[in-house]
Specification:
Elements (H helix, E strand, L loop, with lengths): L1 H18 L3 H5 L2 H14 L14 H21 L6 E3 L2 E2 L8 E2 L2 E3 L2 E5 L8 H16 L7 E6 L4 E6 H9 L4 H14 L9
Parallel strand pairs: 5-6
Antiparallel strand pairs: 1-4, 2-3, 4-5, 6-7
Length: 196
């Protein structure tokens, strides 16, 4: 249920931000709670019950709303420097990867949300690099910064994309790394049609 609680918190934070309602107000509205749960379950379909009842117990629901509150603290911390927040920014696919949805765009920064107890891993960094590489291939404005936000640990990291590429590639340029990534994606013959 750990994944479902994390996705529920993400949906609650998104609903709170877009509606202007507090997380506390959302948590007291049974219809909203059900909508949030259904949205989280839709993303994580393995948690759907046979009778459409909410599988999260009251303690897990409370944990989800507490995690959702952390998003607001994070947004307050970002302040006016990131006036536009976008949940689930769509990223055009390339090669065998179809369109993707990242977690959170805050102006010139892409944040991946990791509601985990462990530290960030190489797998998490690779996922972020793929999103950045796909965006590089599009005609859309580029993210100059990237980072991670962990509502469970109330931590966030933000760094320059150029610096990330330089450090992870042994000194190669962003253009060289992303061009190689895109050539790799284009060289494969099948397209994945599942969300990444």
């Amino acid at each position: 249920m750990h994944d479902l609680v994390a996705e529920f918190a993400y949906c609650a934070a998104e609903a709170s931000y877009s509606s202007g309602l507090t997380v506390n107000a959302l948590s007291k509205d049974d219809n909203r709670v059900k909508e949030l749960y259904e949205k989280a379950v839709q993303f994580l379909s393995r948690y759907q019950s046979d009778d459409d009842s909410i599988l999260l117990n009251p303690v897990e629901l409370d944990e989800g709303f507490r995690l959702a509150e952390q998003y607001h603290y994070f947004f307050d911390h970002l302040g006016p420097r990131h006036p536009t927040l976008e949940f689930r920014p769509k990223i055009k696919g390339a090669g065998f990867l179809g369109n993707c949805f990242a977690d959170l765009s805050a102006g010139d920064t892409l944040y991946e949300v990791k509601t985990i107890s462990r530290n960030i891993s190489g797998r998490d960094i690779r996922q972020l690099l793929i999103y950045l590489g796909l965006r590089y291939a599009s005609n859309e404005p580029q993210w100059e910064f990237a980072g991670f936000f962990n509502p469970r640990r109330a931590l966030h990291y933000r760094f320059s994309v150029e610096h990330l590429i330089f450090r992870t590639s042994g000194g190669k340029s962003k253009a060289e790394v992303f061009d190689r990534l895109l050539r790799f994606l284009d060289a494969r013959g099948i397209e994945l049609d599942t969300p990444f």
